């Protein structure tokens, strides 16, 4: 059973991220993406409580590595969410797949395409060899409200920048329906 994120500690001034990153498996790459995108947070395997929209963002993307195990776990999470078994009140915006190698075997690519069909949207982060040895706390941060948010940043891989913009747009498109309980189309 998947737990929900505990936000009841009133002693701290906690601010919800705009978007939760839910790793399909432990090696999905969530901590790296969370460091790149300042508007996200690692949900640590939990779904946000969808009944507290004034305090906690209900928006979630599942992050999966390009492997059979991770992609299948992502598909299972999406299907369970669609059936209402997990993540009540949370809005699943899509799937982010993260390359696990410089090239992708055809069966895994085909599986990724099939799994992507269980999601409203999907995005892909390519292979970045430099991230294998990078210190996560030294990675550049991108914020959608920065003055140069849409300008190319040589320190930020292009696909990570592009997906960050797309995620910001996906969240932005849902805001009009945030308090209605309806999913924006």
From TrEMBL:
The lineage of its organism: Bacteria, Bacillati, Actinomycetota, Actinomycetes, Mycobacteriales. This is Uncharacterized protein. It comes from Rhodococcoides fascians. It comes from the Bacteria. Keywords: Plasmid.
